[in-house]
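User: I'm putting together a small comparison set for a docking exercise, and I want a reference complex before I start. The sequence is below, and the ligand is adenosine-5'-triphosphate. Could you produce the 3D structure with the ligand included, as structure tokens?
Assistant: Of course. I'll restate your input first, then give the structure tokens for the complex.
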Amino acid sequence: MNYRATYPPGNGSGRGGNSSNFYARRPQPQPQPQPQPQPQQQFVQGNLSASQHGQQLQQQQRWLRRNEIENDSGNREEVGGVQSYGINHSIQDWKSHLNIPAPDTRYQTEDVTATKGNEFEDYFLKRELLMGIYEKGFESPSPIQEESIPIALTGRDILARAKNGTGKTAAFCIPALEKIDQAKNAIQVVILVPTRELALQTSQVCKELGKYLKIQVMVTTGGTSLKDDIMRLYQPVHLVVGTPGRILDLVRKDICVLKDCSMLIVDEADKLLSPEFQPSIEQLIGFLPAKRQILLFSATFPVTVKGFKDRYLSKPFTINLMDELTLKGITHYYAFVEERQKVHCLNTLFSKLQINQSIIFCNSVNRVELLAKKITELGYSCFYIHAKMLQDHRNRVFHDFRNGACRNLVCTDLFTRGIDIQAVNVVINFDFPKNSETYLHRVGRSGRYGHLGLAVNLITYEDRFDLYRIEQELAAEIKQIPPQIDQAIYCR
Ligand SMILES: Nc1ncnc2c1ncn2[C@@H]1O[C@H](COP(=O)(O)OP(=O)(O)OP(=O)(O)O)[C@@H](O)[C@H]1O
Ligand SMILES: [Mg+2]
């Protein structure tokens, strides 16, 4: 089967009958032992003393003194070692020449609007960086950006937790780009991510934000030619984004030199500190200079991260913006089905929902391919992606889906973390995930940057206890799917 097929004319309108059987109620789970401690709620706190807290607040306040140093002449001033430009009349001049995208007028939730009211200029960033930020369409920092940018600029280690889609990438890329010395021909920042697609996406964000800087960004992952990476490293590189295995390979070969790399950023940190990746991360840290800054970011931090934090981070500043765990803009439903009814149920969903773009998760490579074939046979277009595909194909699917070439994408957990496609408003768990971290990250592929989204879970009899447990762990209600879903809850 071809992994790409085209939508038939009039896509979105369903084929096949409207089934009502997927609306059947799930059986109530039998009384079970008390749920285990909730991993999301075991977030590792920094155990800061009151005086440390005070120091941190002072550091933050330093960045909020914009008004104190503003002057009418537009001259450059030095604040805390970071160069700034006067920002009264001159800022308006350079801003008026930028190519700023039209504002996003869609509804946004408090997950991104509940800010302190800071502006990007408050952080005294290089003007060229501010230009990239505004041209990317960012008007003001999100809550996680407000918390992390000023602290990261001071050089402190950070352990940060914030909800999916609330802007963690820029929260670490902006300080990284600010701190790089463009005149110095050396790798100064490494950003580690768990998947190749996320590496491509993150390097693209760095390039866009750094569009007006002279910073050389390199992306390096498995599945690509090692020789090309070696050739690339003969040229200047300031910032490397990649997956741990390939970077470690290049470092061990002495081709990627990290002796001047003073900042290591670990995105999706809980995933990268799982047994699969942690040994590589620890080995990589061994190649960094003694004076280095480590930033850990994720939406989920199980207690297992604590050991790593205690060993490698020095007095980390802890940020936890997850007083509740789920995104405010996402409505969660379940449909109780038998395994053999799942495709029929999906067909009904396609016919009833207003899907802008959807991501449909299966629990195995085999099931991804089978489902994609079924969806195509039903007359809907879909792409599929999983880790066993050739990297070239993966890149093409990712690129084309992002550009809206197809409405539905069937995938494994390869796309669970970090992938940011603004047009996705519906996530379907064709197969229900086994743990609440995976559930949270999967459904977080919709509702990006505080927008609205819908998560629909197909639940079989075997899944009923997992559904119950995940609801408990996330303190979220997953409701039975109603016969009609109001478009206003996921399409505004
Ligand atoms: N300050 C901002 N203003 C407007 N949009 C923003 C801002 N910061 C980030 N965004 C946009 O929000 C979207 C989500 O950002 P990002 O991918 O960094 O989220 P995240 O917190 O890393 O999510 P995840 O946990 O899923 O990885 C992106 O499309 C990004 O361009
Ligand atoms: Mg992210």
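The domain at 107-320 is CATH 3.40.50.300 (Rossmann fold). The chain has two domains: 4-12+325-491, 107-320.
User: Thanks, that's exactly what I needed.
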